[in-house]
Design a protein that fits this description.
This protein is an alpha+beta fold. It folds into two domains: about 1-85, no CATH class; about 90-304, Alpha-Beta Plaits (2-Layer Sandwich), CATH 3.30.70.100. It has helices at about 65-85, 105-120, 155-165, 165-180, 215-230, 265-275, 275-280, 280-290; strands at about 5-10, 15-25, 35-40, 55-60, 95-100, 125-140, 145-155, 185-195, 200-210, 235-250, 255-265, 295-300. The protein has an eight-stranded antiparallel beta barrel, surrounded by four helices. Helix 2 (about 105-120) runs antiparallel to helix 4 (about 165-180). The longest helix is centred in the N-terminal third of the chain and has 21 residues, at about 65-85. The protein is globular. The protein starts with 6 loop residues before the first strand and ends with a strand. Residues about 1-85 have low confidence and may be disordered.
Length: about 300
C-alpha cells in the first residue's frame, strides 16, 4: 500500500487518459479508497477545450453499497492532501477519535477491539495517550459518542503504515461490526500542551468552536480571565490540542481546539457557573463562541 499522499498518474485506460489517482489509507474508521480523476484524450494531444470531457471514476476497493462507498471515500480523501501538507517527517501529531458504537454493542467489545489494535499501532510508534469514557453529554452535536481517544503519532507515515498492516486489515470486519462507521468523528491535531493521561478525578472534554472572526487570540484572552476562576473551583486545563482538520464524521467541522479539563468534583462546574466574576465574562464568552458547534462532555478515566 503506498503512503498517504501518493499520486499515481497512470490509469487502466492509459491509452486514452491522462489522469490523477489519489490513494487514501484507512484511518481506524475509514475504508481504503481510490478516487481517480480521468481527463480523456482526443487524438495525440490533451486539450482543455470544452470538447474534451473530464470524468470522475470511483473504483470500489471493498464490497460495500454505493452510498456507503461515497461517504467513506469523501472522508478518506480529505486525509490525503492534509497529511502531506501539514506535516514533515518527525513531527508529532494526534488523531482525536470520538468513538460511536453500533446499536446493542457494548463498550467491552470496543475494549477487545482496542486490545488487538494497539499492539499493531505500536509497531509504527503510534499509541493512545488519552482515553476517557464519556459519561454525560452536556452540549453539542455528538450525543452518541461513548469514548474519546487521543492517539499520538511520531511520524505521519505511521498512519499509512498502520492502515497497510495485514493484522489491521484482519481487524476490519470486527471494526465494522463494533462501530457506527457512518457516525465516526475524527480530527487531526497537534499538542498545545500535553500533561499525560488524567488518571483520577473529574474530566471535562471541551471541544471549543469559535464564532466567525474569532480565533486563538480571542480564546486565549478569555481563558486567561476564566482559568483562575475555574482553578478556585478545582478545575484546570490539563492538556490541550489545536485542531488542524476534521477528517471524518458528523461532529463540528472546524473546532479550534480540544481542552481536557481536570476537576476535583463535578459540583465544581456548578459553583463556577454561579460565580459572579465568571458571570461577568458571559458577554465576552458569548461573542466569541459558536454554541451550535461546540461539544462538551463529562468523562472519567477509561475502565479496562
Amino acid at each position: 500500500m503506498p503512503p498517504i499522499g501518493w499520486l499515481n498518474p497512470s490509469c487502466r485506460d492509459a491509452a486514452t487518459c491522462v489522469g490523477l489517482s489519489i490513494v487514501c489509507c484507512s484511518v481506524f474508521g475509514t475504508q481504503i479508497t481510490i478516487i481517480h480523476i480521468c481527463f480523456v484524450k482526443n487524438g495525440p494531444s490533451v486539450s482543455t477545450s470544452r470538447k474534451h470531457s473530464a470524468q470522475l471514476k470511483l473504483r470500489r476497493t471493498t464490497e460495500m453499497d454505493r452510498r456507503t462507498f461515497l461517504n467513506r471515500s469523501i472522508a478518506a480523501a480529505a486525509v490525503t492532501p492534509f497529511i502531506g501538507a501539514a506535516y514533515a517527517s518527525g513531527d508529532v501529531f494526534n488523531l482525536i477519535d470520538f468513538v460511536v458504537l453500533n446499536d446493542a454493542v457494548s463498550i467491552e467489545a470496543r475494549n477487545q477491539y482496542e486490545a488487538v489494535l494497539e499492539p499493531v499501532a505500536a509497531r509504527y510508534g503510534a499509541r493512545v495517550v488519552h482515553s476517557y469514557d464519556l459519561q454525560a453529554h452536556l452540549a453539542g452535536p455528538m450525543p452518541e459518542a461513548v469514548r474519546i481517544n487521543v492517539w499520538q503519532f511520531a511520524d505521519p507515515k505511521a498512519l499509512a503504515n498502520v492502515s497497510a498492516d495485514p493484522d489491521y486489515a484482519a481487524l476490519v470486519p470486527t471494526r465494522d461490526r463494533v462501530h457506527n462507521m457512518e457516525a465516526l468523528r475524527l480530527y487531526m491535531a497537534q499538542p498545545i500542551r500535553d500533561a499525560g493521561p488524567i488518571e483520577e478525578g473529574v474530566i471535562l472534554v471541551d471541544l471549543v468552536s469559535m464564532a466567525d472572526g474569532a480565533g486563538d487570540a480571542e480564546r486565549d484572552a478569555y481563558e486567561a480571565k476564566m482559568a483562575p476562576l475555574a482553578a478556585k473551583q478545582g478545575f484546570e486545563v490539563h492538556s490541550a490540542f489545536r485542531i488542524l482538520e476534521k477528517i471524518g464524521g458528523k461532529g463540528p467541522r472546524s473546532p479550534l481546539r480540544l481542552n481536557l479539563w481536570k476537576g476535583q468534583d463535578p459540583e465544581g462546574m456548578a459553583r463556577l457557573s454561579a460565580d459572579p466574576e465568571y458571570q461577568a465574562l458571559a458577554s465576552e464568552r458569548d461573542a466569541i463562541t459558536d454554541f451550535s458547534r461546540l461539544a462538551l462532555f463529562m468523562a472519567k478515566p477509561r475502565e479496562t
